[in-house]
Amino acid sequence: MNRNPLLICALSVGLISSSGLAQTAAPQPPVTATPAAPAPITPQAIPAKIALIAFEQAVFATNEGQKTVQDVQKKYEPKKAQIDTLAAAVDSLKKQLESLPATATADDRAARQRTIDAKDKELQRNAEDAQAAYNADLQDAYAKVAQKFSVTLKNYVAENGYTLLIDVSNQQSAVMWALPNTDVTEAVVEKYNATSGVAAPAPSAPSATRPAPTRPSISTPATKPPTSTPAPATKPAPKQ
Fold first, then answer.
1. Tens of pLDDT along 110-126?
2. Helix or strand run (H / E) with residue 166
């Protein structure tokens, strides 16, 4: 009878000890560190050195760009000759219709007019198809030169410490006026020519004054394609 209270106490002490050990051995959740807030960026005033470039015109003004355009135009010379011949035929038919005597019948005039209309549509369709194909080939050629030209341009502005470069190729550019020595178009063209290894191509037709280069076109609507090539930029060289 006296052993029961002792046994109960011993069992109680054992249970309490086991419970305490179990609580001690239980895994604790990992302590996660609170990430530090990023340091605020302090705006700094940097002395501006701005450069302007007519990028598209510059690409076409390089020796490689001009040679590329001449190569594309040479490819389309047969198509140009075909369009020229068809245009001459349409003009001849129109003159024949206009010169018909007053005694010509209405049926004869109507038949001739139908022929002229058919030839005119054929001319328009051929000119549009040729222009679309020419533009696609020219765009591919331009992209290849422009990719290499971009590398020269980036190196140039970095070497000369420019902090901002603005492309003024588009006539709708927001730049209304700038000092001439901020235009680096000609300087970068000369730098590219010096490293490209492409000699200046012979001009298609001699000219005393050559306009600034623009995107070439094989033809205008219902007209014949020109044979001119883009000319080098005529803007003053930027001062270094």
1. 999 999 999 999 999 99
2. strand 164-167
